[in-house]
Amino acid sequence: MRKRTVRTGIKAISAGILSLIAATFFHAELADLLLLGMEGEARITFLGFFLAGVLGGFGVLVSALGLLQSGAGQPRVRLVPSIVFLFSLLVLFFALTYTSITTPRPPALQPGESITI
Fold it and tell me: CA 99 to CA 25: how far, in whole Å?
């Protein structure tokens, strides 16, 4: 039961990171997809941060509980795929953060300048 509990905690942490990525980098696209507008975009961002905190905290608690249990007599469970997935999500988050910081913003329109569509 120990390793299954740890794997469940890792999955919850991964879900929290996915929620954080969606709320941080793709909130506008999700609001457009769900036809929510600007107010819905703010709600999606808040909900994503809230879910990230709840799922991440739950995952940490469940993983810690699983590590404190004895694993005697329990079937073996492979943790490596879950841990690799978790670290790949962390790398993706930091890569998206770096890209968003280093990408130059498009120039703002000057007063009197028009947009050609």
Answer: 11
